[in-house]
Amino acid sequence: MAGGFVAVYRWRVAPADENAFRKAWSETTLALRAQGGFGSCLGRTADGTFVAVAPWPGRKAREDAFDAIGEGPQWPHSERLDPIEMEVIDDLWTASPFGIAG
Asked: CA-CA distance, 91 to 102, in Å (whole number)?
């Protein structure tokens, strides 16, 4: 995927909203996959911050996919931190290193 694009998203979510947040993240990810995205992996850091890593064919593909889904599902209250965006220059990932593709 050299030449692709990766976005790393981060959120702080209240414990009471975590299940609703994960549902919204999943629905959004599946909708974006249907628009050409490669999916995403959601994790949590030691301080409780949710982090999602999403590879894309390119920056424009990401923008087009988000435009296509519009608002998407209703998200619970959360604090979205600034994303980290990067152009891929070397890619040595395997396809689903955890064997849990959705």
From this structure: 21
Q: Where are the beta strands (DSSP E) in 4-77?
A: 5-13, 41-44, 50-56
Q: Where are the domains of the chain?
A: 5-74
What is the pLDDT confidence band of residue 2, given thresholds at 50, 70 and 90?
A: low
**CA-to-CA separations, 101 to 28, 61, 94, in angstroms, rounded:** 15, 21, 12
Confidence label for 99 from pLDDT (cuts 50, 70 and 90): low
Integer-rounded Cα Rg, in Å, for the chain is 14
Of residues 97 and 18, more confidently modeled: 18
**What is the DSSP secondary structure assignment for residue 75, as one 8-state letter?**
P
| Short-list 102, 5, 98, 3, CA closest to 53 | 5
Q: Which CATH number applies to 5-74?
A: 3.30.70.100
Mean pLDDT of all residues belonging to the chain? 88
How big is the chain, counted in residues? 102
Question: Does the structure show a pLDDT above 70 at 40?
Answer: yes
